[in-house]
Specification:
Number of domains: 2
CATH architecture of the largest domain: Alpha/alpha barrel
Order of helices and strands: EHHEHHHHHHEEH
Structural class: mainly alpha
Number of strands: 4
GO biological process, one term: carbohydrate metabolic process
Pfam family, one: Glyco_hydro_76
Distance between the termini: 26 Å
Strand order of the largest sheet: 1-2
Number of helices: 9
Protein name: Mannan endo-1,6-alpha-mannosidase
Length: 294
């Protein structure tokens, strides 16, 4: 395993937090920790873990580091920070330090400040801090991050309050307008919550599942599980359009084609999906796993 050398000293973390990882890299790195954790059970890579269990600096990986111009980027990284904190705690790295939890909590508070309470949607969060309408993946990630932090530490109940607020917005509030009758999530909507973007990318279906499962655990309310299962059933059973690739006409959804989950941009012989879109299915399938973030 090749080591990455460009990490800051964990005991003296960088003061500049204006940069953030791209979303794909954030959750890939998060899963790297899962692999390293398995290796750690065999005591093979403890020295590597001690070097790697720190916030990557701007020179890490391919250097493609984004500033926090999108709340969704920050939320992906916040979820990664929680994984790092849990890993450190489990393996006795930096005992007593809550540095990564604190960073994730800072991100949660920053995104919470963009909650669209006064909009026609009555909630949700935009993809960009300057946005005016809820974005689905950003709202899902905010919900997931909030619930994950609640489970880790919530001394004054603020996080639980946000978790309950987000859950209610999805299950009984206008957050339902982001979902079709099959339980499938659109990509976002306008400030009035009456004109959703009908693209239903697979990655919009995944991250909320873990948050709903965790809410069922926190509250004892199994209706959260039923709510999540509706989405899973929709992913598997959506009628879609038999002929792929589908046109960008606002009415398409991924479907099971020859046993494979497909995006609207997929095709049997060709695909118009870009690099990001090629990752989308992974996130849905990963979040069916009960260990997704929690």
């Amino acid at each position: 395993m090749e080591r990455n050398q460009d990490y800051p000293d964990q005991s003296n973390p960088p003061a500049d937090t204006s940069w953030m990882l791209p979303w794909t890299y954030s959750w890939i790195l998060e899963q790297d920790f899962g692999i390293i954790e398995i290796a750690a059970e065999m005591n093979d890579y403890q020295d590597l873990i001690e070097e790697q269990a720190v916030v990557p600096n701007k020179d890490h990986g391919d250097g493609n580091v984004l500033p926090v111009t999108g709340s969704f980027n920050a939320a992906w990284a916040g979820l990664m920070y929680i994984k790092v904190q849990q890993y450190n705690d489990a393996h006795g790295l930096n005992p007593g330090s809550t540095y990564y939890y604190d960073r994730a909590n800072d991100i949660q508070q920053g995104i919470a400040a963009t909650w669209l309470a006064s909009s026609g949607c009555g909630g949700g969060v935009p993809q960009l801090t300057s946005g005016t309408g809820p974005n689905t993946i950003t709202s899902h990630l905010f919900f997931s991050l909030t619930v994950a932090l609640t489970q880790y530490s919530d001394p004054d109940g603020t996080l639980r309050g946000w978790a309950d607020k987000a859950a209610a917005w999805y299950t009984t509030g206008k957050g339902q307008t982001l979902r079709d009758t099959d339980g499938l999530w659109f990509d976002g909507t306008n400030p009035s919550c009456d004109a959703p973007d009908h693209h239903k990318w697979t990655y919009n279906q995944g991250p909320i599942l873990s948050a709903l499962g965790a809410m069922a655990t926190l509250t004892g309310d199994t209706s959260y599980i039923d709510f999540a299962l509706t989405t899973l059933d929709g992913v598997v059973n959506s009628p879609g359009t038999p002929s792929l690739p589908q046109t960008d006409n606002g009415s398409n959804f991924p479907e099971i084609v020859n046993g494979n989950l497909a995006e609207w941009c997929d095709g049997a012989s060709s695909s118009t999906c870009n690099n990001d879109q090629q990752y989308f299915k992974v996130k849905t399938l990963f979040c069916i796993n009960p260990d997704c973030y929690f």
